[in-house]
Specification:
By secondary structure, the chain is an alpha+beta fold. The protein has five helices and 16 strands. Strands 10, 11, 12, 13, 14, 15 and 16 form a seven-stranded mixed β-sheet that branches. A three-stranded antiparallel β-sheet has the order 3-4-5, with no helix packed on it. A two-stranded antiparallel sheet has the order 1-2. Bound molecules: zinc ion.
Length: 238
């Protein structure tokens, strides 16, 4: 991770470049008890990052699993509208290779264009601060995850990536019910948002979806509903 909390109460964020050696920092996930240390500070070989080598991430924390170095990616050529259009188009899924346009741009030699897959864009957002921007939008406006539950308290509207827990499968109507935020354990008195995901692409067996697991869903959310036209719009996190 590039970010962590400075304090145990998780109120003050710190970027890795401002971190110090041998100091305890805390995981961004509100329910994770992981204590992080700054690694590879000052290294010219490996980019520095926070890692839980004092006490590991807990509660199935996704930050430990899906660490990527976001600096590796050239985000200036990434267009969020094109991304959502691409993953939800009914055409056969295109490859993740950058388009011709991107190839012609002058790219920083050490970076590669951010691939246009749901999982890659999710990981990019997950490893970014909620205040960072991608394609002129704040990360908090793109990704609804455990960090942004204070932002999405009543409704989720527009093109979003939502990290949610699958709680019900309606095989007949080909819909999934998703709970946001994706706490694996039910928290008492916690208000959740329940979303209906309509599967509109050809699918052989709705039983291939797994209950009580965390999925990421990318698409246009409206009135607590999203319709998926392409399998590229949903991914099980494992
Ligand atoms: Zn964690």
């Amino acid at each position: 991770m590039k970010y962590a909390y400075k304090d145990k109460e998780k109120t003050e964020k710190i970027y890795i470049d401002d971190a110090m050696k041998f100091i305890d920092y805390y995981c961004l996930n509100p329910i994770c008890t992981g204590i992080l240390r700054a690694c590879a500070l000052g290294s010219t070989v490996v980019p520095s990052y926070f890692a839980a080598n004092i006490s590991s991430h807990s509660g199935g924390c996704l930050y430990g699993k899906y660490y990527i170095n976001i600096k590796k990616y050239q985000k200036d050529t990434f267009n969020l509208d094109n991304f959502f259009q691409n993953i939800s188009s009914e055409r056969k899924a295109s490859t993740n290779k950058p388009s011709e346009n991107n190839k012609n741009e002058v790219l920083n030699q050490n970076t590669i264009p951010l691939p246009n897959s749901l999982f890659q864009v999710y990981k990019y957002c997950l490893n970014s601060s909620l205040e960072d921007t991608l394609s002129n939008k704040k990360i908090i406006e793109i990704l609804a995850d455990l960090r942004s539950e204070h932002f999405y308290t009543k409704v989720i509207v527009g093109n979003k990536i939502v990290e949610g827990k699958l709680i019900f499968i309606d095989k007949k109507n080909k819909t999934l019910n998703i709970q946001y935020p994706a706490h694996l354990e039910k928290i008492e008195n916690k208000k959740y948002i329940y979303l209906t995901v309509k599967i509109n692409y050809p699918i052989a067996n709705m039983s291939s979806f797994l209950l009580n697991r965390i999925y990421i869903i990318g698409g246009y959310f409206d009135n607590f509903k999203v319709t998926l036209s392409n399998r590229r719009q949903i991914k099980l996190l494992d």
